[in-house]
Each structure stands twice: as structure tokens, then as C-alpha cells.
Task: structure prediction
Amino acid sequence: MAIVFIPPQLRQLTGADQVEVGGGTVRAVIDQLELRHPGVRERLIEEGELSPALQLSVGHVMTRLLSTKIASTTEVHFLPVIGGG
Amino acid sequence: MSTEVASDKTQTTENPVRYKVIGTRPVRHDGADKVTGKAIYTDDMQLPNMAFGAFVRSPHAHARIVSIDTTEAEQMPGVLATCTSADLPDPWDKVEDLGEGCVNYAHLSGNVLARRKALYKGHAIAAVVATDSHLAEEAARRIKVEYEPLPATMWVLDAMREDAPLLHDDLITHTLGDKPAQPSNIADHIRFEKGCVEEGFAAADVVIEREFKTASVHQGYIEPHVSIAMWNEDGRLKIWTATQGSFVVRQQMAALLKIPVSQITVVPCEIGGGFGGKISVYEQPVAAVLSRKCGRPVKIVMRRDEVFEATGPTPGSFMRVKLGATKDGKLVAGEAWLAYDAGAFPGGVIGPGCMCVFSCYDLPHASVDGFDVVLNKPKTQAYRAPGSTHVAFAVETIIDELAGQLEIDPIEFRLNNAAREGTRRVDGPVYPRIGLVECLDAIRDSDHWKSTLTGPNRGRGIACGFWFNAGLKSSVAANVNADGTVNLIEGSTDIGGTRTSIAMQLAETLGITAEDVIPQVADTDSVGFTDVTGGSRVTFSTGLAAYHAGLDIQRQMVARASQIWECDPDSITVTDGIYKGNSQSLSFRELAAKVDSIGEPIVGRAAVNPQGSTNAFGVHLVDLEVDPDTGKVTILRYTACQDAGKAIHPSYVEGQMQGGAVQGIGWALNEEYFYDSNGHMRNASFLDYRMPTCYDLPMIETIIVEVPNPDHPFGVRGVGEVPIVPPPAAIANGIFNAVGQRLFELPMSPPLVWRAINDQQPGE
Amino acid sequence: MMKSREHTAKVKTHVTTTINGEVIEFLCLPRQSLLEILRDELSLTGCKEGCNNGNCGACTVMLNGLPVDSCLVLAVEAEGATIETVEGIAQQGQLHPVQQCFLEGAALQCGVCTPGFIVTAKALLDRNPQPTEKEIRFDLAGNLCRCTGYDKIVRAVQSVAESQQSS
Result:
């Protein structure tokens, strides 16, 4: 069960700022979100991968892999990509 | 990845470990070469039959390229070939994850050699290769380019206007919300929300809102960009280059030239500074194309003015920030509106700017709007904690103002609101164990803070800063020699002494001395994939790989000892490099000598990809004096405090803190891209782009705080970037303390300070 | 007139000079700097090109006993001169105290400015064995470093002075 923090610009689609969603991976979670709130997936996924402008925080792990596993009550955040220097 | 470890090695706050190697200060392995001038930097390399390339660059800030005529140049004796963007394949319509941010190859290609339009003064239009470098420059002057100048936009707010001239006709703002219908210069709009800001501000007793402006600044590395490309007749391409990431260069070259990565070898020579500016490719693909055309190795060295005008400075910015607090000094709400230059192509550092703006504080209600804006300046790149210095300047100034109005000590105010383990960031995630509070405490307990500052026009300022730090991929291999030394092969280009801190982590793991580890930075054919040296990741991530390679070696050594002693491997213990089993005992060195004659060689390996931020916080304190007649600010005393998690080599941690602080001081007081009304940079030299010299500064005192990072066995946090974040704000607060005037613009150069003291508007 | 000026510009001058105690001969064009000849003709790549217009000091060498930016010296000016580069500072396999103190004091990070600093610092200490911090900073102000913030460089020079005082 993921606790997905909905980016503010998507809240018009979901109506809420946090949504509890089932799914064993991030991809499954996004699929579930799409079922409930159509239009969300195309904002987050491009050509089957996470949008290049985004990265995920899953628990404390920063990743771009949609296959990242979700344990119970894991927080999922969609964040901008960052690079250091 | 196995987690077996001598548990006595794992550093935690509750169980601080005393190490034998970690925390000591051995002389760096590459040191003798560097102090004798023997170390080979890319421009030191000469290859047989080498030719030299030079660029033709746009004299206009914005122009359509009508035609390029290379005939006259090509006819000059000694000129071997020319190239333009027509010689680069059509770019992939592709965006790739380069580990540290994504790159759009169409944009990268267009930046390397302009297609259709020159988007900034200095934008590369064409290049030429000749038998010597002077001839190449003369030939470049003979390449005739016809331009149709277009109006240029140089200020971020101007570029955001609806009537602003567009750089890219097809640029539609990326947003997670509804995309706009029309193109603009706004490449991205990011938004964060936490709680409800209206509610938050309604509950505030004091609300302060300020606007801030910052100018473009450059990383200022002393070594310019330089590469040698050799494209052989068998199709193999070898590049010697000054880079922070040889694998990342290889990826970019493969994509831009449309050849497989397996055909490319990137050899990282010693590098003379990077700070984020030597990750993206500039001259490498051009040198490669010219080499293919002329059949000789081609060296291209950028001139200093080219480095300023045509590489990747950090953005200029406009920021509007509002903070509200109760009269007890509790922050209740924050709002930020941030517009950062992207430069000529999208993909600037507004993302991390938005994530860092309120990162030091526990804010129940906040909103952030950030805009990535294209304009006619060189494409921006990372500069040490990219985007964070800007927002810290804004927020820490307002924090200082709030504390002053509420008559609360500035350290107390920050402690009352500091982010801690469990604080939820405005962008969403919750902090793990972090060390901001410890840094604030350390500054409060410091000699500097306790000292009294006396004298007219003198003031004291304090500021905090944050940077995430990355993990990312690193690979190492380590070979045990018969004399008990270990050759460590790693792929992290060494900009500041990291090969030694990585060697120290391997040495600690094995129980040997740092001198007995021989580290080497290898090329892309010789070591496994390793992400860039940047993001403060090397000591953490490549060090982690070295640690695991050490455990791998240890397992093999134990197995070999069990053969020699004819006992069960599980019965063998290893402590501080002493192997004990079956009533016998051997040191690592003794065992290494024995195993050389039996069994396979002992080779340790590890590949890691730690995925977390190591979360670095810093607090800086400055005493300064303002000259009321000239507006010049003199730094009297400076203390940088930072949570390093665990300082592997304290001298180099101190060095990072001092170097970053001084870059921040330069950013605060003098450094800026000074553009004229034509969009031309007028100070593209070290004379007028005024970086701090030795004479401008006092000693930089350092306080290393160690709150171990739970995600690293030795507790390492990245240290390289956060020191550049607090200085401009600390200095701004110091100036206010000295002369009662707040400045909201960077740099706080003498004319600006003078006008503020004399109560004039800028431009009067 | 034009023809002979062009001709002159392409005729190489023969220069005889002394570098690190050795008599060296080279050919150079009038426009070539000493930096270019040292690095590209004589393979003395210790001095570095950071800016080529005398603002960063990475190209510092000693010319007739004075530290100079070799990018601002024409190669023809080396005729009859005595030049010392960073390559000549360590003697017979032994690091000079300045070099040793830089290493022990971690006074370098990327190292590209280090040869210039070593030459300048040695020149200072040869002239003034016990400089104050201010004198050190003043003399080294012509050498830019972007990595270290100068703190450990100044301390390294101070520790050379200290060790020479006690010896």
C-alpha cells in the first residue's frame, strides 16, 4: 500500500493531496491511480518510462525506476530531477 | 549486496568507532606529481601528428544563421578541415538520464554547434582544424558567417513576458498541470504545496516579503575546457579530456555522433577544477568530427573568454520570498516565486532551487512556484549545490530580518525552526537523521560567535545552507599484490583528492595503511561504469564501493587462509587486518605473501548504486567591515561549520569547506556576468570577472560536525557542495549588521553597497 | 613593406637561454610566448595556461630572479636569461621544503594552480624567509586558486618559514 503524495499541479485530477493506492511497484501504483483518476498517467509517464523531468522518492530511496518495489505504507513522492555539481 | 561486516567498523552516533586510517591525514597518492609539475593534465598531452582545432563563435546574442562559407579558410595552407552542425548527425529526439539530471540530445547538439540560430554571444557556429593552433585561429577568422540579428533577451523577467522574442518556436512549458497552448520562453513550471499558506499567513504576527536578484556567475576553474580526440580508421574513437565524468562523456558522445558506446574510449586526464561545469560536452564532439575528417588526433583548448561566454555558468535569478512567524519566533508559513535562467536551452537548475528554498526549516504551510526560463545567455550548468545558493540568499536574509524584528537571537530563531529527523520537507519527503541542529549548536559554542566584534562599520552575519548530495553508480576493482599492497582501480575522476579518501576507506576495511593502497583513476575501458565526480558523491558512493570490494577481498583471503590452516573458514576471525584461525595468526601482508603461491589471484570487486541523499547542512559565520567611502566589504573573520557525517580525510573535508566558502564569498561580493545592451559579456577575463585572490581573504576557520549518515558504514556524508550555499546570505546579514542597510541583489559589489549606504536607488 | 613584415613574422628566431641550470636552445616565432615554448617546444608542461593574459598566475616561472607570468613574456625575451620552472625546484630527487609543506598541509586540490604557487612561494621565501601572513597573501595575490580558498596554501608557506626558523 503506497501513500502517494500528489503533486499540486495534479490535484485538480485527483481532488486530494495524498492518495492511498495498492500495488507492488511504482508502475502498478500509477496504473491504479490512472484507473481512479484518468489523465494522471500521461503527466507522469512518457514512452513507458518515468517522465525525464521527474524522479521518485520511494521511502528514503531516490530512483527513476518504475519497477521499484513498494513495501507497506511507503511514501511515494514525484520530484523534479536534480543534479549536483 | 552482502551486509556482512566487522560490525566494529560501522559508525553510529550511539557507537562512535575509533578508526585506524579514517580520520587521519596521509599525504595524497598523486601529491608528488602535482607539486613537481609532473602530473599530466589534458593540455600537457602531445600525440604524434596532432593537429589543433579552433571555433567560430557568434558575435550576436541572438541571430538567425543565414550562411556559413568555409572556402577561404579551407584554402589556407596547413588547414586540414572544417565542420559545422551539418557534420553532426540529426540529433536523437531523445532525453536520456545521465545519472545527474536528464539531457535532451537535440538541445545538446544544438549547443555544441548551432543549428539555424545563434542563441547567445559566443555560441559555437563552426570549427576548423589546422597544423598549429595559431593557424587554426587565423583560419577561424576567415570563415564567413552571415547572420540576421534578432532581438535578444537577457533578463529572466523580460524573457517571461508574453511579447518576449522567442528563442525556440516550439518550446511549450513543461508542467504537471495543463500545458499552455502557445510556446514561450518558459521551459518548466514546478510547484510545491504543503498545508495551506493562506491559513499559515493568517496566523502570523509578522510577515516579511522581499524580492531578490542575482547575476550569472561562473564556476571559474583555472583549467579551461580541453580535449584531444583521435578517431581512427577502424572506427574507434579515443578522447582524452578534462571531465568530471568519463562515462557520461562517453554516453553523450555516443548519442551525439550516433555511434555505439563500445566504439568510444574516454581517458580522463588529471583535471584542473570542475565544480559542475565539466560534465556536459562542448569541444569533445567537434574535436572528434575534425579528427575523423583529417585523420589525425585533434586537440582543442578553449580560450578563457570562450570558457566564460560559451560553457555553463550558474543561473541569474529573480526571487520573491515571503515568510511569516508568530511573535514567539515560530515560522508558520512560507511562499516562494522563483525564476531562474536556463540559458539558451531548457534544463536549468530551478528544480533543486525549489526543493532547497525552505529545506532548512520546519514549515507547516508553504508554497513554491519555480520557472525555468530560456534567454540569450549560455546554457546554464551545475555549480556546486546548483540553485541552492540563490534561494539561501533570499530565505536567510528574511530569517535575519524576522529574528531582528522579533528581537530573537539569530541562532535561537534558527534552532527553534530547524529541520530535524522527521521534518517533512515542502517538496514532500521526510528527513532521516540530519545534522543542522548540531551545526547551529557548534557555531553557537564557537570562539568566533563568543568573540566580541568592535569598531565602526563592522558587522556579523550568519546563514544556513543545505544540499542533497547524490549516491549514484560507482564500480571498483582491487588487486592484492604479493607484498601486501592493493591496487585499487576506480572510475571517479579526481578533482580534489578523492582517490586518497577512497583508498583510505579500502585500507580501513582491510586493516592496512593508506600508503599500502595504490589508487588509480582508470578510463572507460578499464573500470566498470561510474557516474560523475560531482553531487558530493565520490567519497560516499565510490568509497562505499571500495568498502564492499574490501569485504570481497577479505572473504577471499579468509577462504585462502582456511586452506593454508586447514580449518573451517567460519572459524577464522579478522580484526584490524589480522587473520586468526586454528591457533595461528597472520597479518594481511603476511597472508598476501603466502597466497601469491597458491590458488588464483585475489581480486576484489564491487559495484554500487546507493539511492538516497546524504543530506548535508552547513552554517557559516562572518565578521566583516564596510568601507563607507567606497562600499568595499572586507572579510575580517570567517567560520564554516558543516555536518560531514564522518570526515575520512579531515584536511580535504576542510579544504572543500574553505574552497566552497570562498567561491560563495566571490559570488557574494564581486562576481557577475556584466552584460551590455547588446547582450555581450564585457568582463570575460579573470581581470574583470573578479574572483577572490589570496589577498582578499583571511583564514577560513572550519568546524566539522559528525552526525553519521545511517546509509554508509563509516557514516560518510557528501561535503563538497553545501559550503557554497550560506556565504552570500551570511555576508548580506553581516552588511546589515554593520551599516544598517539590507541588500537584495548579488553581487553586493562596492557600487551597490555604496549606494545603499548613501540611500540611493541602483542606477542613480 | 607589407611583404617584408609578413616575412619577418614567419622567420624563426634562434634563442639560447638557461632553464633550470641547463643551457637550452630553441627556435620561435616573434609572436610566441615563453609559456607556449616551454610547454609545446620544450615539454616543460609544469607551468599551465589558465588565461593567457596574465591574470591567473598558473604560468608563473622565474625569469632572472623574478616570478613572472610566462604568458606575458615573449619567447625571444628569454635570450641570455636565466629561467627556473617548477621542474627545477626539487633537487636530486628530493622535494623542496615548499613542495613538502604543500603536500603535508593538503594545500592543493585539483593541483593545476600548484606549480605556479610553488614557484611564487619559493621566490617569496628566498627573498623574505620570515614573511608575515599579510606579506604572504600580498605576494601570492597574483596566483588564483579556485579550489582551496587559499587558507592551506598560506599555512603551507608559513610552515616552511617556521621550519626554516627552527633549523
Observations:
- Chain B touches chain A through 56 residues (CB under 8 Å).
